[in-house]
Amino acid sequence: MVKIAITGGAGFIGAQLTRACLEAGHQVIVIDSLANGARERLDPRVRFYQLDIRDPQLHTVLQMERPDIVSHHAACRATPLPGQRPLTDADINLHGLLNLLDGCIAANVGRIIFASGGNDLYRTEGQALPLGEEAPLCPRRPLDISKLAGEWYIRYYSRHYGIEHVILRYADVYGEIERQTAQHPLTEFIYSLLEKKRVIIRAPKGEKRDHIYISDVIQAHLLALERGSNCTIHISSGTATSLEEFYQRAAALLSASEVAPLYLNERGRSGAAVALDNSRARQILGWQPTIDLEEGIRRTAQGIYANLGHSLPPVPLPPILPRSAEAPSTSRLAASASA
């Protein structure tokens, strides 16, 4: 058993990771500002500190708790809006990370696991797929630039202070059931299909990216608690899939009449295909993805049905209208967010 501090532990990934660590017998503390996380997601067995990772009090918490491992999932959220926020991204993802790293050194934390990006870090033009971790890097958005800079700060602290690290570069993680806070488009697709509304795809038509279901991400992270040393690892499916395929599969699963989606291209999206090689994860962690696309979409739909208070029959799933009175509340905006 180890003691783990999870930053962003009230977010989508962090909350599920918290429960998995508890079920594995570990002791867990959660640090989250609740800017985009939700207190309702917190397991009652954890000790919770509502704290921004930029706050100097973070050092006090870490020295008091003395965790063996820190899992860092607190970060700025991606936004579908065209405006960029380089100062905000850098303040949270770099200033916050450096504050956390200094706190880890002062509290003699032995290991940090860093949740980084994957699909948006690389130059894909002219590259054979799937991309390995050593592929040429070319982040295009402030959020991705700050994530990549964070990786280098973690490597610096490992070399100079001896803290061990594992950097996990996630593909696009799906499986969210809460509409207002969902980052992956699949969740909105399913809600729109249930409401019989036209689906909007915010990407170039035909763009393909790597996607991974949440339970596979959590399993990889559990393995990374003990395996891997000062390394960078893709947590990915290894295949490229378009959002249009997600939409088509969700529509077929829900027996919904398929209407051509509306495409709105986000600024900075090239439309190039990207898939991330997960061979290193297989070798170092002994991990491989177990949930294929069809099963991941089915599980997401089941979770959304349950969230709306409906019993779920076996497939095919009949369309239903969500009950607006039971829709989850929108989290308040703030400077720091949960990953």
Short description:
The protein has a single domain, classed as Rossmann fold (3-Layer(aba) Sandwich), CATH 3.40.50.720. Helix content is 34%, strand content 15%.
Compute the average pLDDT.
Answer: 89
The CATH topology annotation reads as Rossmann fold
Quick one: CATH superfamily?
NAD(P)-binding Rossmann-like Domain
* Backbone shape: globular
Describe the biggest sheet? 7 strands, parallel
What is the quaternary state of this protein? Answer: single chain
* N-to-C order of helices and strands: EHEEHEHEHEEHEEEHEEHEHH
Radius of gyration: 19 Å
Provide the spatial order of strands within the biggest beta sheet: 3-2-1-4-5-6-11
Q: From the coordinates shown, what is the CATH architecture?
A: 3-Layer(aba) Sandwich
What is the end-to-end distance?
25 Å
Q: What's the CATH first level?
A: Alpha Beta
Residue stretches low in confidence (pLDDT < 50, at least 5 long) are: 317-339
Q: Considering DSSP H and I runs of 4 or more, what fraction of the residues is helical?
A: 25-40%
When the domains are counted, the total is 1
Care to count the β-strands? 13
Report the structural category: alpha/beta
Strand content: 15-25%
Discrete helix count: 9
Written overview of the protein:
- It is built from nine helices and 13 strands.
- Strands 3-2-1-4-5-6-11 form a seven-stranded parallel sheet, sandwiched between helices.
- α1 (12-23) links the parallel β1 and β2 (27-32).
- 34% of the residues lie in helices and 15% in strands.
- The chain is globular, with a radius of gyration of 19 Å.
- By secondary structure, it is α/β, with parallel strands linked by helices.
- It has a single domain (3-326), classed as NAD(P)-binding Rossmann-like Domain (Rossmann fold), CATH 3.40.50.720.
